[in-house]
Amino acid sequence: MLKYIIPLLLFIILAVFLGLGLNLKPNDIPSPFINKPAPEFSADAKTWLKTLGNPYNVSIMDIDGRIGIDYGVYGVPETFVIDKKGLIRYKHTGPVSVDDVQKTFLPLIAKLEAES
């Protein structure tokens, strides 16, 4: 009888953790990458940008999907604020609204510029 009860209890415990996890919002989950160095870009990407030019302030090519994995991307879109030292200072999951820019991004950028 015990050999049936233990797997049943383990299943119930796992089901509870799954249920709790499904109720979390991605924006509420802290990123483990905050205050960590941003991954380096490959030499191929730098050469491509140098040869063809960069039409954006910042552009990232993730041909093999490794940069997304390095940044812990789990939802699209995700926006990162990286300071002048190359440290990830903020991660925003989801679309960026005008409200997000005014209340989150601009104050953070002003704070980071003041630190330099």
If you had to describe this structure to a student in words, what would you say it looks like?
- The structure is a single chain.
- This protein is mainly alpha-helical.
- It has one domain: Glutaredoxin.
- The protein contains 4 helices and 2 strands.
- It has a two-stranded antiparallel sheet.
- A hairpin with a 5-residue loop joins strand 1 and strand 2.
- The longest helix is centred in the first third of the chain and has 21 residues.
- It is elongated.
- The model has no long low-confidence stretch (mean pLDDT 80).
Low-confidence stretches: none
What level of helicity do the residues show?
40-55%
- Overall mean confidence score, pLDDT: 80
Strand content: 5-15%
The named CATH superfamily: Glutaredoxin
Total DSSP helices: 4
The CATH topology is Glutaredoxin
Class computed from helices, strands and strand pairing = mainly alpha
For the terminal residues, how far apart are their CA atoms? Answer: 66 Å
Give the C-level CATH assignment. Alpha Beta
CATH architecture: 3-Layer(aba) Sandwich
How many beta-strand segments?
A: 2
The figure for the number of domains is 1
Major beta sheet summary: 2 strands, antiparallel
Tell me the radius of gyration.
20 Å
Which sequence of strands runs across the widest sheet?
Answer: 1-2
Order of helices and strands: HHHEEH
Judging from the principal axes of the Cα atoms, what is the shape? elongated
